[in-house]
Amino acid sequence: MKKQGFTLIELMVVIVIMGILAAVAVPKLFGMIAKSKASEVGPAAGEYIKLQDAYISETGTGIGDWKLIGYTMNSNSNFNYYEGTTLNGEQNGTSVLLSAGKTAAWKASNTGALNDCVANSVWQLDVAQNTTSGGAATYQGKITGGATGANAKCIVLTPNFDKFSTAGALTTP
Predict the structure, then answer these.
(1) Main-chain phi, psi angles of 157, to 5 degrees
(2) pLDDT in tens, 91-115
(3) Predicted TM-score of the model (pTM)
């Protein structure tokens, strides 16, 4: 009579191999989930820049707030979006010629932790009037919030965010 089946040692080897694969794959999976959640920041910032640049090209008078440039970004379960500053205190829907040192800002804040990137970290684009190139705007990206060193962990989730900076490299105060 021929016996068929697996020995205990063969089964244990398979279980050990599956355990090793799971130990390697699970952290990678969670990293990819966090990166996919953070991936919405780039397109949202890009849309803001396009609308702001189009407004400046059309009017040539200054930088517009969200209402004036037609930017609408609703908060969702991963991020809250908001206008960072009021443009020199003007009412909603007005244009402003920014004086020296004044900036408008686009901000996105994560509502929950994204792996090592702590909750309520802020992705920010500061917009300043560029006086040297016919009124075009310059943009400076920065990522702030969280504990010391946490900013670098947020940068990993959105590696292309620094490409929005026309006024220099991405800053992480």
Answers:
(1) -75, -30
(2) 444 455 555 556 677 889 898 888 8
(3) 0.73
